[in-house]
Amino acid sequence: MRSYRHWLLALLLFGLAAVALVAAAPPAQAQTVAPAGLPPGAIPPAQAGDDTACRLCHQDTDGEFTLPSGETRSARVDMDSLAHSAHGAADLACTDCHDGNRFGQPHEEPTAADFRAFELENNASCVRCHGAPHITSHEATAENPEPNAVCTDCHGSHDVATVADWPAADQADRCIDCHDASDEVRLLVISSAGLFTDTVDENYCLSCHREDGPGLMLGDDEPVSTQFDESAFRSSVHGEDNEWGEISCRHCHENATPYPHPAVEAADHRDYSLAMSENCAACHDHNFELAQDSVHADALADGDRDAAVCTDCHGFHNVVPAAEPRSNVSQICRQCHSTIYDEYATSVHGDSLLNDENQDVPTCIECHGVHNIGDPTTNLFRIRSPQLCAECHANELLMNKYEISTNVFDSYVADFHGTTVTLFEHQDPNVETNKAVCYDCHGVHAITDPDDPEAGIKANLLETCQQCHPDASENFPDSWTSHFEPSLEHNPIVFLVNSFYAIVIPLTVGGLGFLV
């Protein structure tokens, strides 16, 4: 009885072992049914379960199969290529890719309408092992539901290259089947960037956009270069050395998708620039908001597409520090305001900055602001303009370097012109006044040295006064004390009269007090 139990236990263990062996076998085994015409015993029993049946037919045959479209394809498989392929090293069976139930002997007639449909059917088997190993640039779209390239188009069917073999230049031949390229090595670099990356990063982008990148045609057939100057970007404020860390392409091009990119909807290059400048707000929200309250933003809202936006002043990829060097400021404004720049360049301020590299003189932004630039034609700007001039000309430390009086603002406010303008500012700064401000006498952008014998204020003082006082005589300017406090050197008569009154009036009032 005990012996019987031992035999029963042994049989049970043997059965379990057999089940385990079956379970460990490949998911679909190659067919071992001998093809018609092979003599009995051609397949050794020891090879049952391997690819022998498939290989005996397909390794050396002139056979073909015909599709409903009438297309014919060879049934021969290059066994040497298969053995040295990525799948040959993996010890895969034919039926791991080719469904054993469908490709058994005799084979079923192909159901695919044509060879392309046949390829699409067979490519479905790739995802059994390869889920999504890399980003594809050939995926189906709503406009084109059929992928424009499938696995075997690039990787082949039986001669699948290994990852190590892909950098070889001859692999670019697979790309050239669809892509026209004179430089096969460069084409391989571009394709490899997309094939062997998990994310759309800057290397993925730069594989196309560095050096002789492809061009872009906008809606009005305007060609636009998409070449990216990597060196300029690395040295820009967005590059490697900025304090926040280098930004990547997708920080600005946040809606970029893997190639092929969707069509650019911009009608022309200006439309594209206007759209891209909106992306600056993601990081520079404060300055972006200030710019929305500017004369440029108002002009843009009124339909002026040439009104300046972020990228017009700062650039795209080669963004440099805004005021380094300071002469850059006027050069940037010059792009739109060339006539004004020409006046500024010959002025006492512009000449000193552009030719002498004097960093003390004002540039455009000192008077007009940076992002929230106001309209200089308004009454408000006119009334407050003396205070802009005073920021430099009332600065004692700065003016002492150039031996310029710092009394200009105080003396202006104390005279009739300045007093009236000050009153207007306090009452209603938007009300127009015809009283003179600094630039009425000195000019706006073409400001000259006051002592210039040809163009200075002193040489043309009467003419300057006659702009507002057309009946002024030659003696009229003598009534103005200029920006100096009266002294024996400047306006001695006024000084002596003031001194006389300063002495006589107190004595007179004091004497009258004694009489009372």
What does this structure look like?
The chain has a domain at 25-137 and 151-159. 43% of the residues lie in helices and 2% in strands. The protein has 27 helices and 4 strands. The strands form 2 sheets. The protein has a two-stranded antiparallel sheet with strand order 1-2. A two-stranded antiparallel ribbon has the order 3-4. A hairpin with a 5-residue loop joins strand 3 (215-217) and strand 4 (223-225). Helix 9 (184-195) runs antiparallel to helix 10 and helix 23 (408-414) packs across helix 24. The radius of gyration is 43 Å and the shape is rod-shaped.
Task: List descriptors.
mainly alpha, two-stranded antiparallel ribbon, 2% strand
Secondary structure layout:
Layout: H1 2-24, H2 52-58, E1 64-66, E2 72-74, H3 79-83, H4 86-89, H5 94-97, H6 115-123, H7 151-155, H8 172-176, H9 184-195, H10 202-209, E3 215-217, E4 223-225, H11 230-234, H12 249-252, H13 269-277, H14 285-291, H15 295-301, H16 310-314, H17 327-334, H18 338-345, H19 348-354, H20 364-368, H21 379-393, H22 396-400, H23 408-414, H24 416-427, H25 438-442, H26 461-465, H27 492-515
Helix pairs in contact: 9-10, 17-18, 23-24
